[in-house]
C-alpha cells in the first residue's frame, strides 16, 4: 500500500493557488521503477494563461508524458498547479517549459516531454515542445495525438 500521509491536498478542501509559484506539486512514492517501465500521460485540453503583453487569456491543449522515477505526481495537486496559470502572465514558450520543468523536478522522473498546443493568437497557432533528454528506448512512447492546427477541439 502506498503511504499518502504526506499529502495535504488529497481528500481535503484546498484553496486555489493564485499563481504557479504558490502552487505545490505533491507526489507519492512509486514502487514500479524496478519493474518494466511505463509511461504516464496527463492531458489538459483547457489550459489557460494570460498574455503578458495584453492581459488577454491564452488557451492551450497540453499533453504531458513522463516515465516515472521514484515518485508520481498526485493528480489533484497537478490540477491546482495547472489552473494557477489562469492569473499568470507569460509567453506560451515559458508556460509550457515551466509546467514540464516543475513536474520533472517534483517527480525526479526518468524522462518527461510536454507538448503545448496553443490556440491561435493573431491568427497563428503556436506549438511548444520540451523534454528532459533523449526518449528512453525501453518503453513505448505513443504519439501525442494532437493534429496540426485545423481548428483544434
TrEMBL record:
Its EC number is 1.7.1.13. It comes from the Bacteria. Keywords: Cytoplasm, NADP, Oxidoreductase, Queuosine biosynthesis. Substrate binds at residues 73-75, 92-93. The keyword Hydrolase does not apply. Pfam families: QueF (PF14489). Pathway: tRNA modification; tRNA-queuosine biosynthesis. One of its GO terms (biological process) is tRNA queuosine(34) biosynthetic process. It is an enzyme of class 1 (oxidoreductase). One of its GO terms (molecular function) is preQ1 synthase activity. InterPro entries: GTP-CH-I_C/QueF (IPR043133), NADPH_dep_7-cyano-7-deazaG_red (IPR050084), QueF (IPR029500), QueF_type1 (IPR016856). It catalyses: 7-aminomethyl-7-carbaguanine + 2 NADP(+) = 7-cyano-7-carbaguanine + 2 NADPH + 3 H(+). It is found in: Cytoplasm. Residues 1-22 are annotated as: Disordered. The active site is at residues 51, 58. GO terms for cellular component: cytoplasm. Residues 1-19 have a biased composition (Polar residues). Signal peptide: none annotated. Belongs to the GTP cyclohydrolase I family. QueF type 1 subfamily. Catalyzes the NADPH-dependent reduction of 7-cyano-7-deazaguanine (preQ0) to 7-aminomethyl-7-deazaguanine (preQ1). This is NADPH-dependent 7-cyano-7-deazaguanine reductase. It comes from Notoacmeibacter marinus.
